[in-house]
Amino acid sequence: MTKYGLIGQTLGYSFSRGYFSELFEKLGLEDHVFSNYELPHIDDLKTLLGEEPDIRGFTVTIPYKEQVIPFLSEMSDAAQKIGAVNVVVRNRGKLVGHNTDAIGFELSLKQFMPQLPTEAPALILGTGGASKAIAYVLTKLNQSFRFVSRKPKTREHLAYEDLQNLDWCVPRLLINTTPVGTFPNVEECPSIPVDLLNERHFLYDLIYNPEETLLLREGRMRGAKTINGLEMLHLQAEAAWKIWQEAHPKQTN
User: Does residue 153 have an active-site annotation?
Assistant: First the structure.
């Protein structure tokens, strides 16, 4: 049996198992299985890999995209530059880290092209592993940005209370990389001044469950253009499968 999976702390909401199980069925890969592996602590990864020698690769979600790095033997160039990993290949006893979040985000962001606003820095809500992939893509696209955090790490980071003082008359891109608003907490919203949102703004929420978060709904009602994280998720999953195929061609052809 060839096994793949997803590691994280709370995975009941996860899209990945259904996506890959359907893919394996479509491709006629009856000996392939995708499982969710909830790990209370990242150190539990050692135990998991010892108990599951047939795992050939896994995806990584909150809160382990950065914490998994010390367990890796190698990282792709992009993952090294980003500083976060969401896809791991297990091959001959080595764990190799990749980042397909950046691929999925960049491709899905084309929905906003060529209207993407450059008049003001984009705002990245959150400073976790996913936010690093977003920053990597925006840098690649020559889009300036600022991180927004509950506890700013540097002088360059904004606190949520600082947002009240920004000029909200200019076009601006906002990307939510936090889990705030994820099912079942669907009535929660990042602490931004939603009453100042308008048709000049572009909202991208990486959350896909619910389909429309409270943040996106508040923006849409005020005329903002909105995207949820579902297309990004599909695109990064496709990229993950391609990486696994290239690493284990005999198992996946």
Answer: no
